[in-house]
Amino acid sequence: MILGITGGMGCGKSTAARLIEARGFRRLDSDALVHEKVLTDPEVVLAISGRHGPAVLNPDGSVNRGALGSRVFADDAELAWLESIVHPRVFALWRGAIGDPADRGSQGPGWVLEVPLLFEKRLENWFDFTVCVACDREQQFARLEQRGLNRTLAGQRISKQLPLARKIELSDFVLWNGGSPAFLQAQVDKILDSLAA
User: Fold this and answer.
1) Cβ distance 160 to 77 under 8 Å?
2) The dihedral of CA 111, 177, 29, 31: what is its sign?
3) SS3 category, 123
4) Which of 9, 10, 150, 182 has the fewest CB atoms in 10 Å of its CB?
């Protein structure tokens, strides 16, 4: 079984995915793949610096994600360009880990993949079930501010995603992450127990 976890920025996708992982699933975090594998690929670094110049690089030559994000999230064409480089590489990493969705088997533990743009990029066919993690907007902004993202930048990035209400409508399951950790755990257990029944 392959579960796709999505939701708004700051809603708790990673927290939910780790709870599912603790139930025996293998976990892939798409954002971590981008940060650790894709944006460290010399070919990608060269393409980004060739397009945006040295201002988006750290002194050690690695990509400065904050500087790059400030540019691409303010310009739809630049964001589309970056995604055209990043997304095929992420999908290749997925395939390397879990196999092609057309011929995957049901052997072994399930997978849970964190995919912020699951519906935006029409990736539903990769998954047996989709799960949206949601919370109210004030909690979302508060969590993003705790990560060091100011409200203006947070709002800018959130605006590039489908509205949370639409993600909720499109998902097979919804986890409401507006309460205690125990409340979220109980919801995860309920979903996984129903799928295992």
Assistant:
1) no
2) positive
3) coil
4) 182
Q: Beginning with the edge strand found earlier in the chain, give each strand of the sheet holding 2-7 in spatial order.
A: 26-29, 111-114, 2-7, 129-134, 173-176
pLDDT tens-digit series, residues 130-173? 999 999 988 988 888 888 888 888 888 888 888 999 999 999 99
Whole-model pTM: value is 0.86
Go through the domains of the chain in sequence order and give each one's CATH number. Answer: 1-26+111-197 (3.40.50.300), 34-103 (no CATH)
Report CA dihedral (32, 72, 85, 42) to the nearest 10 degrees: -70
Where helices occur in the chain by DSSP H, the ranges are 13-22, 30-33, 42-52, 65-72, 76-98, 137-146, 151-158, 164-170, 181-196
Q: How many angstroms separate the CA atoms of 5 and 66, rounded? A: 24
Cβ-defined contacts of 20-25 (< 8 Å, 24+): 20/112, 20/188, 20/192, 21/112, 23/188, 23/189, 23/192, 24/109, 24/110, 25/109, 25/110, 25/111, 25/112
Residues forming beta bridges with residue 176, ordered by sequence position: 134
